[in-house]
Amino acid sequence: MKRFTVILAILFLAFGLAYAKDYTVTKKVGSYMVHVRMDKNPPITGKNNIEISIQDAAGADVVDAVVIVEYSMPAMPGMPAMNYKTKTETKNKKYMATVDFSMSGAWNINVKITRAGKTQSVKFNVDVS
Fold first, then answer.
1. Rg (the chain; Cα; Å)
2. Among 2, 63, 46, 51, which Cα is nearest to 23's?
3. pLDDT tens-digit readout, 90-128
4. Percentage of the chain with pLDDT > 70?
5. Which domains are assigned to the chain?
6. What's the rounded Cα separation, in Å, for the pair 20 and 40?
7. Which candidate, 72, 103, 110, 104, places its Cα nearest to that of 88?
8. Could you give the CA distance from residue 16 to residue 29 in angstroms, rounded to a whole number?
9. What pTM does this model have?
10. Backbone angles phi, psi at 70, to 5 degrees
11. Structure confidence at residue 17 (pLDDT)
């Protein structure tokens, strides 16, 4: 019985480590609360799905904005800066996109929200493995 308990504890620990929580960022910009979720934590080289939800000051979901995700890596010795941009699609009151990191390292992400002629940005950094 003791052996079974030890094996069960090891399995739960391994499953917990393998099933890491998504990468999330929540920031307030202007009158909006912006929640960003990436499906991998840490983000990986290659394709990562990103989901953005936006609430206004009253807490209502914002679904009529144009949201663009820009992601970049600054220049390094022997390597030019890398800059990418992707549009989002609205699905279930959220803005969905895929970012494709071309290499590991520190990346800057800028989520641009345009609504009623005004653009606001949410910026954050990720370390891609």
1. 18
2. 51
3. 999 999 999 999 999 999 999 999 999 999 999 999 999
4. 84
5. 21-128 (2.60.40.2480)
6. 8
7. 110
8. 34
9. 0.83
10. -110, 135
11. 46
